Amino acid sequence: MINFNGQLTEDSKCITTKNRGYKYGDALFETLKVVHGKILFWEDHYFRLMASMRIMRMEIPMHFTMEFLEAEILKTINVNGLATSTARVRFDVDRGDGGKYLPKEKIISYSIKAEALEGDFYAVSTYDSYTVDLFKDYFVAPGLLSTLKTNNKAINVLGSIYAEENDFDNCLLLNTNKTVVEALNGNLFLVKGDTIKTPPIEDGCLNGIMRKQIIDVILNSGDYVLETASISPFELQKADELFITNVIVGVQPILKYRKKEFTTKVSEDILKRFNIKLRLA
Q1: What is the pLDDT of residue 118?
Q2: Residue 226, C-beta contacts closer than 8 angstroms, at least 6 positions apart
Q3: Binning pLDDT at 50, 70 and 90, where does residue 279 land?
Q4: How confident is the model at residue 88 (pLDDT cuts 50, 70, 90)?
Q5: In this structure, are residues 56 and 150 in contact, taking their beta carbons and an 8 Å threshold?
Q6: pLDDT by residue (tens digit) across 107-146?
Q7: Quick one: pLDDT at residue 199?
Q8: At CA 163, angle to CA 253 and CA 195, rounded to 5?
Q9: What is the rounded distance in angstroms from the CA atom of residue 168 to the CA atom of residue 70?
């Protein structure tokens, strides 16, 4: 069962071919991790969604409060029997149905879908070899729109196909300035000595919730220095470690890029510190 504008219904009865998210990619979404009925980082997700809706010039309904949306998410969790386990939730918001680029009726529509997910906390990756490559067929545009979680994910889809066809586990995306922006499914961090570097939002990387959390861990560690700066492709093979972050996986170490193999000491330490922070929250 999914939640479609507050009504619990079957998946197939919700989105029509007239839906603007389907037709134009005129939609935003949040990917949430819910553990035993608690939405992780819910305040961060909520304020990112509200900010994104404003940037997309969506008219935010008055009832879209943090409490209302949280209740709708938990209602969806409960009806799917996931209240006492871990779940992955996708929250979509769009401008409903309409055939024109600017619909006359600016009615906001939303849907919530939940599915079971293993693991309450974030675990160290069990990959024997997590290999990535640069995806250079198309480039991300630096700027505000690229930082939003919209349904316009053509570059990510094509990059995923490229990775599958070439036996890579992931790909790294470049922007039009030819600097490394992010991975297909998360933000990128580069470790060199005690310095941990990540691209700035201005380069076009996703304004990730886990990115924010990991940056906070690094800043409060006392052992590492954070640098927010553009990453050149030439820096990748000189790095000690590379890792990817997203709210579902947590921290995913990259083990190989071309001929360079990486260690995982720092990424595992960062993940342990983050899990401690999560347990104390």
Answers
A1: 87
A2: 195, 196, 197, 198, 215, 218, 219
A3: confident
A4: very high
A5: yes
A6: 899 999 999 998 778 888 777 889 999 999 999 999 999 9
A7: 98
A8: 30
A9: 37
Paired tokens of 155:
């570059």
What is the separation of C-alpha 280 from the centre of its chain, rounded to a whole number of angstroms?
A: 23
Single out the residue of 46, 43, 59, 49 nearest to residue 28, CA to CA: 49
Task: Give strand pairing partners of 110.
Answer: 93
Integer CA distances (angstroms), 265 to 183, 231, 276, in order: 20, 21, 17
Q: Give CA angle at 43 (184, 51), nearest 5°.
A: 65
Q: Is the pLDDT assigned to residue 89 strictly greater than 80?
A: yes
Q: Which domains does the chain have, with CATH numbers?
A: 2-116 (3.30.470.10), 131-280 (3.20.10.10)
**Residue-level length of the chain:** 281
Kindly list the distances between the CA atom of residue 93 and the CA atoms of 28, 58, 155, 203, 243, in Å, as whole numbers in the listed order. Answer: 5, 10, 21, 25, 30
3-state secondary structure of 27: strand
Note the pTM of the prediction, 2 decimals.
0.94
Q: Using alpha carbons only, what angle is made at residue 122 by residues 243 and 172, rounded to the nearest 5 degrees?
A: 25
What gap in Å lies between CA 2 and CA 113, rounded to an integer? 5
Q: What is the pLDDT of residues 55-70, one digit of tens each?
A: 999 999 999 999 999 9
Residue 78 CA: distances (Å) to CA of 2, 9, 57, 93: 11, 14, 32, 21
Which pLDDT score, from 0 to 100, does residue 19 have?
84
